[in-house]
Amino acid sequence: MLELFGGIGAPRKALINLGIEHKSIDYVEWNEKAVRTYNAMFDNRYKPESVVGYSLQPDILVHGSPCQDFSIAGKQYGGNVEDGTRSSLMFETIKIIENLGVWKPKVVIWENVKNALSNRMISAFKHYLEDMKRLGYTNSYEVLDARDFGIPQARERLFTISVLGDGHFDFGKLRKRPMRSIKEFLETEVDEKYIITQPSMVRKLPGKPIVPGNFGGRMLEEVKDYVYTITTKQMRCPNSGVVKLPDGRYRYLTELECWRLMGFDDEDYEAALKEHPSKEGCLNGTLYHQSGNSIVVQELEAIFELLLSGDYKTEYQVEHNGQLQLIC
Predict the structure, then answer these.
(1) Entry pTM
(2) Is 258 a catalytic residue?
(3) Cα separations (Å) of 19 from 60, 252, 304?
């Protein structure tokens, strides 16, 4: 496996959880703090580097290019090849595969925000699909929700799986899991620093009158059965949700809770915390940022599980009468 825009290593964590023997032939990430976290979790000594001009020969290539220019919260430049935006880095994957010559990865997985399918962004996404098809891949894509894979987080992300040769990856064959209780993920006691006291946030707490503002009057949502999308920051509105305390006050999600809700173990979090210690009385922006930028581990588990079973395709063949017959 080759991990491009590797973040904190969700693909590798998924393979470890599945007990699948694998070799991460390389991990490429430009963010120095994310590299330090990855090294702390997996005991490797990688250095920050860019994917531009990179060349290796993996069986599985996973890339989740930076989402800011596809995200509704970002500037929505669209990730076009010519504009030099962060999301245009997804086309570096095309160049990497082209540079490999006759050898190509068997599977290429790309993950990003579902806004990549919007009218404003779709042209770049179609361009990517066309390039992958030209290189000999069959593309399939689907928006997956973390709640369908056991994680109580309303996180919808676009997954594109390109398989070398014929046959579409059938997302309908993914093994779904019942959503676990949010209580399994929340801490019972937290530090006072997580209590919401910032006036601009207090005004947006559940039950407060709606005040039009920069967010169009949007309010903070109380966490009940699940949280909303884990983002890189919690001290903003909208965020992933706020937790109501017995005394009526509200608090932010903790860094540990965000890591749990992305599918990582407490041991992973402790390794990251040791590398990036929290300051007294302050929220740890680095650990929030790293969880919000990651991929939900359990979604990758389901994808890898199906891919490696060999029974992941939905194929079509042409009958003598010219009609297509579905083969499962």
Answers:
(1) 0.87
(2) no
(3) 17, 34, 11
